[in-house]
Write a structure and sequence with these properties.
four-stranded antiparallel sheet, 2 helices, disordered N terminus
């Protein structure tokens, strides 16, 4: 009988240990492993919690769409060297489903917002628009999350290169599943990519964000080099790498949205550092979509939807997730210089800057997927005492 009771007690102790939450026993679920990260109850000790507001204007009715035409969700915007603006919108304009209604349309506007043309109408790679970028030669790069493709076009709108391949309709295309642990990625193929950037040597970096959680590198000729990153919360790991930009010193900044941080790498994919934006929001603002997190919650704060570095600049703009929905101006080491706007539907308010285009430090275009628009912002000088931190 004593032996039986001892066995029962041992079983109960083991079961209790197994059942204890990961966070209580220092497991990877609360830190740097593949388990789901737990949302912190408050900001990081010693974090920068406040920053001055940057005064700005939003140009009303800037884009002149053709009669009877509207934007759909707008996840992408870019500006070329001549000031022409490219808007990648989910307007359900192309025909034939991938695994849902096709939603991608690339439109070009002049420097004054005048409509110029539609580029790549009903292109095979159009499925679900995500971002658009312009390289140093004014080539147009469109990242399509639905077709798993990145498409390079010249100014004539002709396809020059394609990266990845969409699922064949003949095989019955279906949405990607999200098994845990995830399936290993394949070289040269993507599962819901998010963004693209280039270093000074012309190497191409593609954030392969929603499923693979990595960054892929190609050389300037479009030949595969390597990839770096994996799902997780530790250094060099990602939970939805949603944006990628590269500064003039060839530092690679990856907006690790699910982990609410920006990670910085060299062009070989070696982790260098990371920073977070933890400026506390106005909890009186409301989310445009879904429930607003309760007062004190850190959910969504500083989650980088978008990143943009003006040409040759030493500052970085970061567009927050849908709520609190702000835009931040930062130094390249992550110090917040100022805050632009807040959540909402009105002019000068945002529902998450899904992509930013910043031809200069004082001119920003904000693509808003939830508000179905692009806002052109003109930043005003900050008062000297706030600009200098006094």
């Amino acid at each position: 009988m004593k032996k039986y009771l001892a066995l029962v007690c041992a079983f109960v102790v083991v079961a209790w240990c197994v059942a204890r939450p990961e966070a209580q026993r220092g497991g990877r679920g609360a830190g740097g492993g593949r388990g789901g990260a737990q949302e912190p109850e408050g900001p990081t000790p010693g974090a920068q919690l406040t920053a001055p507001d940057i005064p700005f204007d939003s140009v009303p009715d800037f884009f002149k769409l053709p009669e009877g035409m509207n934007f759909g969700e707008v996840p992408g915007v870019a500006v070329d060297s001549k000031g022409r603006v490219y808007v990648f919108t989910r307007s359900n304009s192309a025909y034939g489903p991938a695994f849902g209604p096709t939603a991608a349309q690339l439109l070009e506007f002049g420097p004054k917002g005048e409509f110029i043309r539609e580029i790549g109408k009903q292109l095979y790679g159009w499925s679900f628009a995500h971002t658009v970028r312009i390289d140093k030669d004014d080539n147009i790069w469109a990242v399509d999350k639905g077709s798993d493709m990145i498409i390079k076009m010249n100014q004539a709108g002709r396809v020059l290169m394609v990266f990845g391949r969409r699922k064949e309709s003949a095989d019955g295309a279906e949405p990607w599943e999200h098994p845990n642990p995830p399936l290993p990625p394949n070289d040269g193929m993507f599962r819901q990519p998010t963004d693209v950037a280039w270093d000074s040597q012309g190497n191409i970096f593609i954030s392969d964000g929603y499923v693979n959680s990595r960054v892929a590198k190609y050389d300037k000729n479009g030949d595969w080099v390597k990839s770096f990153g994996e799902p997780g919360t530790g250094p060099g790991q990602f939970r939805t790498p949603h944006a990628v930009v590269i500064d003039k010193s060839d530092n690679v900044y990856v907006g690790d949205r699910g982990n609410r941080r920006v990670q910085v790498f060299d062009t070989n994919g070696t982790y260098k550092r990371e920073f977070r934006v933890e400026i506390q929001p106005d909890y009186g603002t409301r989310a445009v979509n879904g429930a607003t997190p309760p007062k004190g919650s850190q959910n969504g704060i500083g989650a980088p939807n978008s990143l943009c570095i003006p040409p040759g600049s030493n500052v970085l703009f970061l567009g927050e997730s849908t709520w609190p929905g702000r835009i931040f101006k930062l130094t390249l080491d992550g110090k917040v210089i100022g805050v632009i706007g807040k959540s909402g539907r009105l002019l000068k308010q945002f529902s998450g800057g899904h992509q930013l285009a910043c031809p200069s430090e004082n001119e920003i275009y904000v693509a808003e997927s939830s508000n179905w628009r692009v806002q052109k912002l003109l930043l005003k000088p900050m008062p000297a005492q706030t600009a200098n931190g006094r």
